Amino acid sequence: MLWLLDSGLLPKVGRITKPSWPLKAFEDLKAFKLYHLDVGLLRYMSELPPAAILDGLKVFEEFKGALTEQYVLSELSAKGFIRSVYYWTSGATAEVDFVFFGDKLVYPVEAKASINLQAKSLKIYRERYNPELSIRTSLSNLRLDNGLLNIPLYALF
Asked: Quick one: which of 77, 79, 109, 74 has its CA closest to 95?
C-alpha cells in the first residue's frame, strides 16, 4: 500500500479534526480514506457492467455514491491550485466528503450522485464553522444560494 501511495497510484484522503488553515496541521494521521486512481478503472475492478450505469440498474443505485466521490476527487486532484484534499467528520453524525484550501479560504465539498440536494452533513458543517462558501456537486443546475454553490457534476471545476 505504501508503494502505491508513494507512486501516486492510490490517492489518500486524510481526515481533519478542524477545517482551519493550514489543514495539514489538523490532520488525524490515524484516519484516512483510500480511493482508486480512476473512476473508469474503479467501475471495471468492481465488476460493475457498463449497462448498469447506462440503463440505471438497481445495482448501480447502491454504488453510484462511490463512483461520484471518485469522480469529484479526480476533478479536485487535477486542479493545480489544490495541493491536498481532506475529509471532515463530526464524530458519528456527519461527514463532509472533501475539504480543501484555495484562494485564502477553506472549502467544504459535498458530492451528491443525484438531483436530491439534501446534504445533512454539509448543513451541520456550515452551522458549526460558517464558511464563506460551501460547494455541493450534483445533477442539479448551477446556482448560488446563501453561500452554497451547487455545481453540476458535468461542469465540475
From this structure: 109
